[in-house]
Structure to design on (670 residues):
């Protein structure tokens, strides 16, 4: 693998553009496209339902970043652990939580994946080892180190994956968590979704170094910079990191460069004071779904009929999820006081 | 029954629970090779090895989070803070992660974890090392808060805390580690949420926890010389609070003084007074008074520090006021 030298003199692996599809299962490739499309359509409907007042609070959409969640989940096993920040609808769907359960949670309904008690920022499915959306920037990074510690404690071969944004790397929790993971050789994957902005603050206005992968040098930790608009590049980089975790109990820092096409949350306009309309339009040329669709078509792995039916299937799924969420009951008032403590 | 120090009673609880349940492990600063800053973990590294007695860097936020994450993945961590003063750095993990996970996940992700270490003032350690945070933690739904006063309670409550299945914040008394008492051997469990009457009396109820139990008992001794019978009730658990035992005592004595080492405003005693006035209003013959630490950062100077802490004389004075003897 190629490496490059950073401003600080550290050497960081650079992931090559993903290879042609030779030897890969066409159905699995189409599945990646389908999973990304599901997130896109789901998030569009979530935005719409937010505007209608069906979804409350904060709602952070994942549009533009779909390749990161889908590529990652494709490289994981069902018994691996996944934790996310508060922009996690996409990861939840890619992990296999149903559109119904996620949409119902956004609606705050009893049928939601967190019983209506978590909301958009706190999606959980313990059976799928999807252990949350967490809404304190950086706060969940040590939790993933802890899950990786538990894996090593039990001598397992799972990995624990942490999704966080690039703004979290300036947080003390990031440093503390990565230091311990490297010190103790834990099978963790720290996946930084660098979408360029922490709310309205550009990376360059918040971080003394712009090369997030280079921070791994502080912990003597393997790292890669990955094109987050390329689902295959993400999948393969996560697969390498997972192998490193499973076989050698080594943590990895992945800087996955992506971009959000929407505002920080539904309360934030798409561009605004901190980025230009032109910049957003320019980034949309890298749309992970459009580009991957084109690659599949060019490789002769996707025809119009399949594409049409894929779109119809995804739209029906999301439509069903919205209806399900809308028709589902609110939690019973008695639920207010349940789940404060576990009773034996 | 063996006589043990508070320190060794805690050590025994840890050892027994780690032998009983392979998911239980201890982590924190200096818990292993150094044998514990206060020697609570003496000998545990030798018996259980470095995977179960984990020395951490000085990163309270980080290792508290590691503990919570390990609990999410099915282990039962005991996270030691060298003192609770340092735990403020970890409060995000205690409050935002540990206390809320079970609720936010609608019961899918329990957090069986104990955060333990010494709290309260010692001697001349200055403002940053002399403070009581029971009320901070007890304010948070999802946490249980325990503060034992005796070696027997320390052992029995730590064992219960480890088995509780929920986040428990366990305050030890820095000045109690060398105190001695009889401790039942083996399976000695003190239920969380159960107060204990440490001394019976008919004239006034003194409510005190942790190190303040000894202060209340000393005051009771002095009051006895004047023919005043003080009943000392130790809640042992700050949250959930056994208000029934406290009010039962107040119904008998009709007067109450609450003693705590922490600051007065919004303190543990404020909650107890609120409960007592509501539950035992008609039984009270005087307003409930509180004896607390002074409402200042702890000074270093020995004389000033003495003035800042509750002591038996202050408790005696408060009792005389509720008895209208002064």
């Amino acid at each position: 693998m190629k490496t490059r030298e950073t401003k600080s003199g550290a050497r960081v692996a650079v992931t090559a553009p993903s290879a042609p599809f030779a030897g890969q299962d066409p159905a699995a490739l189409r599945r990646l496209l389908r999973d990304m499309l599901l997130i896109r359509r789901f998030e569009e409907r979530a935005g719409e339902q937010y505007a209608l007042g069906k979804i409350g609070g904060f709602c952070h959409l994942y549009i533009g970043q779909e390749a990161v969640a889908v590529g990652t989940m494709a490289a994981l096993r069902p018994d691996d652990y996944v934790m996310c920040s508060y922009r996690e609808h996409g990861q939840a769907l890619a992990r296999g939580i149903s559109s119904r359960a996620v949409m119902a949670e956004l609606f705050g309904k009893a049928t939601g994946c967190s019983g209506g008690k978590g909301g958009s920022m706190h999606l959980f499915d313990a059976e799928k080892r999807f252990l949350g959306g967490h809404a304190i920037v950086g706060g969940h990074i040590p939790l993933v180190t802890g899950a990786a510690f538990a894996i090593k404690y039990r001598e397992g071969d799972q990995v624990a994956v942490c999704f966080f944004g690039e703004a979290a790397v300036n947080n003390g929790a990031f440093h503390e968590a990565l230091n311990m993971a490297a010190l103790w050789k834990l099978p963790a994957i720290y996946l930084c979704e660098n979408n360029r902005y922490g709310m309205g603050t550009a990376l360059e206005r918040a971080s003394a170094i712009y090369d997030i992968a280079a921070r791994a040098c502080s912990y003597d930790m393997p790292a890669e910079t990955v094109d987050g608009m390329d689902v295959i590049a993400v999948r393969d980089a996560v697969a390498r990191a997972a192998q490193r975790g499973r076989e050698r109990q080594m943590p990895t820092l992945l800087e996955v460069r992506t971009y959000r096409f929407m505002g920080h949350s539904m309360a934030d306009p798409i561009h605004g004071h901190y980025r230009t309309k032109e910049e957003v339009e320019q980034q949309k040329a890298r749309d992970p779904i459009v580009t991957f669709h084109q690659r599949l078509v060019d490789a002769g792995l996707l025809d119009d009929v399949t594409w049409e039916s894929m779109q119809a299937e995804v739209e029906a799924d999301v439509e069903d999820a919205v209806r399900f969420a809308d028709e589902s009951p609110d939690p019973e008032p008695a639920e207010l006081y349940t789940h404060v403590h576990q009773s034996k | 029954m063996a006589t043990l120090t508070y320190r060794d009673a805690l050590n025994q609880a840890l050892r027994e629970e780690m032998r009983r349940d392979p998911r239980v492990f201890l982590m924190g600063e200096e818990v292993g090779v150094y044998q514990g800053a206060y020697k609570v973990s003496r000998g545990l590294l030798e018996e259980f090895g470095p995977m179960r007695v984990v020395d951490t860097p000085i990163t309270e936020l980080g290792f508290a989070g590691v503990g919570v994450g390990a609990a999410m993945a099915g282990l039962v961590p005991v996270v030691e803070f060298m003192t609770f003063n340092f735990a403020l750095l970890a409060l995000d993990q205690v409050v935002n992660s540990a206390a809320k996970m079970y609720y936010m996940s609608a019961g899918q992700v329990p957090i069986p974890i104990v955060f333990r270490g010494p709290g309260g003032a010692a001697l001349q350690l200055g403002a940053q090392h002399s403070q009581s945070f029971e009320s901070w933690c007890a304010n948070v739904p999802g946490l249980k808060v325990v503060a034992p006063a005796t070696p027997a309670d320390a052992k029995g409550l730590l064992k219960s805390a480890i088995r509780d299945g929920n986040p428990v914040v366990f305050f030890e008394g820095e000045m109690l580690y060398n105190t001695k008492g009889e401790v039942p051997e083996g399976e000695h469990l003190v239920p969380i949420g159960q107060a204990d009457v440490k001394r019976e009396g008919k004239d006034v109820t003194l409510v005190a926890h942790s190190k303040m139990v000894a202060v209340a008992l000393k005051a009771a001794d002095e009051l006895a010389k004047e023919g005043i019978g003080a009943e000392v009730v130790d809640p042992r658990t700050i949250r959930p609070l056994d208000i029934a035992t406290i009010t039962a005592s107040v119904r008998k004595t009709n007067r109450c003084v609450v003693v705590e080492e922490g600051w007065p405003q919004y303190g543990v005693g404020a909650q107890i007074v609120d409960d007592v006035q509501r539950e035992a209003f008609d039984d009270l013959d005087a307003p409930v008074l509180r004896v607390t630490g002074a409402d200042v950062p702890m000074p270093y100077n020995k004389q000033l520090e003495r003035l800042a802490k509750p002591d038996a004389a202050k408790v005696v004075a408060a009792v005389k006021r509720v008895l209208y003897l002064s």
Summary: The longest helix of chain B spans residues 6-20. Chain B has a mean pLDDT of 97.
